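Let's practice the habit of predicting before peeking. Look at the sequence and jot down your guess about where helices and strands might fall. Then scroll down.
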Amino acid sequence: MFQIMGFNHQKAGYPSVQTFVDAMRRSEAEQLVAFIRFIQAEGLDGYLRAKEWTQFAERYNGPAYAENRYDVLLAQAYEAYGPG
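Done guessing? Here is the structure:
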C-alpha cells in the first residue's frame, strides 16, 4: 500500500529488514502500521493533520513530487474520501 524503503525498517518499527519484509507480506494492516510509524518517526504526521499536501508530498516522495502531482492527488483523495 505504501512505499517504504527497506533501509527505513527501524523507522517503521522493525528490528531487521527481514522482519519488515515479513510484516509487509503478512497484511495490508501491517503495511498501514508501518507507514504510520514511519511518518511519525520522520515528523511528517503534522503535515497530514494540517492538510499540507505539498509539504508532505515533497518530504515523503522527494523532489519529483511535483512532476508526479502527488500533492494534487493527495488533496483530491482527501476531498473524495476524507471526512465530510
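How did you do? The chain has a mean pLDDT of 96.
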